[in-house]
Amino acid sequence: MAEDMFSKWHGLDRKKINWGPVIDPNKCTGCGLCVITCGEKRNVFGYDPVNKKAVVLFQERCMVGCNNCQVGCLWNAISFETDDEYIRSLAKEIPAEQIQKELKVKLEANPNLVIE
Q1: Which residues contact 96 (CB under 8 A, 6 or more apart)?
Q2: Number of other CB atoms surrounding residue 78 within 10 Å
Q3: Residue 50, CB half-sphere, CA atoms under 13 Å: how many?
Q4: Considering all CA atoms of the chain, what is the largest pairwise distance in Å, rounded to the nearest integer?
Q5: What is the rounded CA–CA span in Å between residue 2 and residue 114?
Q6: Exposed, middle or buried, 69 (CB in 10 Å: 0-12/13-18/19+)?
Q7: 46-103 per-position pLDDT tens digit
Q8: pLDDT-based confidence at 116, cuts 50/70/90?
Q9: Please, are residues 34 and 73 in contact by the beta-carbon 8 Å criterion?
Q10: Are 112 and 66 in contact (CB under 8 A)?
Q11: What 8-state DSSP symbol labels residue 28?
């Protein structure tokens, strides 16, 4: 279930993190680029065929710190209420042991990321 998969961000409760896109419906042209740009598993966005606009369906699935949808939106219709400093303050809360544990798992699963 996607909700379980994204319920934590490096051990922090995702529901307590204020991060996610906001769409200005007056600027959104309904092109759908944000819908297809957001990862296949995350699917933060949906589409309203009646109004021909993208909508945020699952804000808590948004990867903390990711703003690819905002960068790619040609009409500047997507914004985020929080900034880089907020994300850095969250990152400081991640225990070093958590980071080391996640790094070990990732490198074991992807040995091609280790240079020799």
Answers
A1: none
A2: 23
A3: 0
A4: 55
A5: 29
A6: buried
A7: 999 999 999 999 999 999 999 999 999 999 999 999 988 999 999 999 999 999 999 9
A8: confident
A9: yes
A10: no
A11: -
